[in-house]
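Hi X.,

You mentioned you wanted examples for the new student's onboarding notes, showing what a folding record looks like when two proteins sit in one file. Here is a clean example. The first protein comes first, with its sequence line followed by its structure tokens.
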Amino acid sequence: MKQRNNSNCPICYSLDIFGDRWTLLIVRDMVANHKQYYREFLGSDEGISTNILADRLKNLVEHGLVTKEDDPENRSQSVYHPTEKALALGPVLEAIMDWGLKYGPESLTPPPGWQAATAAS
């Protein structure tokens, strides 16, 4: 994701890191749904493509929101974990969710596992 280096705005900085559709959905899946494997993120209902997923996970690792390590049981795959920095996005995700529930179509529902995730943060 391209970053704007000419702005001192904290909103601009934040959006450079997690302001696209996919990044916050990956963080949501880690925090609320406890996903930690690449294939688990690919299985999300929104249907992220493999190249976008790889790019967003790399970006999250580079910015310290996610750690990546080899799976001790299967060295050919990686395990991703949210850091404190990612977990601090819980209230942001909750606010976005609340806004969507208030102003979006009545058919919207909170993501599975969301209540348990917000109670822990």
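Then the second protein repeats the pattern, sequence line and then tokens:
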Amino acid sequence: MYLTVKETAEYLSISEKAVEKLVQQKKIRALFDGTQYLINKEQFNTHLRQMEKYKQLVEEILNEPIPEDWDVKDED
């Protein structure tokens, strides 16, 4: 499904100018049909799924218990 710049701005809760800037910087992939930019909505869904996976991975790492160090000696 393709969105216009206005629809994309509403979907991402940012301004239309910000969407246009991201398109110009090629941070958002878009097609130009001769009159307006069309942006594939699926690219955001993919990004959000990836971010969710990374978030889960970080949570797993942070929740992993710290192993007890068997060689803790004060050698001063």
